[in-house]
Amino acid sequence: MQELEVQHTDDGSATLFVPALDEHYHSVKGAYTEALHIYRDCAYLYAAEQHTVGERPLRLLEIGFGTGLNAVVTAMVATAQRSVHYIALEKYPVVPDLVRSLGYDKWVDAELFAAIHGAPWEQPTDITPHFTLEKRCCDLLGTAIPEEIDIVYFDAFAPEKQPEMWSAEVFARIYQGMRPGGVLTTYCAKGAIRRLLQATGFTVERLAGPIGGKREILRAVKA
Fold this sequence. Notes:
Elements: E1 5-8, E2 14-18, E3 23-24, H1 31-48, E4 58-63, H2 69-75, E5 84-90, H3 96-101, H4 110-118, E6 125-128, E7 131-137, E8 149-154, H5 168-177, E9 178-186, H6 191-200, E10 202-208, E11 216-222
Helix pairs in contact: 1-2, 5-6
């Protein structure tokens, strides 16, 4: 990945900025707030409400592991009733020194965050009894989508910056890998993306965005 800069967002938490793309890893309105609302609450906890004790762990796919913020806020609420196997696809892993400079230990469980970043790549690792992490260093465009996925955090860079990641082919591949009733959320609420998800077969709804952040986000459910 090209040179990255640490910048602070409106809720006080930090994010990374990519000068070459003029793009941020998280919302400038609030990195931490975005992770909680769009991904943890509107996808993971929403899906977990239908998951009962004794069932298999939820299989969660994150498109873009990035700073690991979405992963740690999910791990912090994983319980026996809603345990999760978290698979993250990331082409450009962030180096440890840069991760530490973000100061997320003030916002999340520091030990858990360190364990997530210390976990080896390319193999499942039990971070807690209810949270298994599988980080894969790969390019989504040339990688087989994991199967039997219950939840997708679609957190790629914006369509204007990475149009190839927001294609009909990519969404079709993800759709095929999801279980019926699977949930996908994304910060991007553009009409073109909503229509693309609908054309793929998802039932799509607009939801209110994070407080102080984007006005709307999208949640898509596989029929």
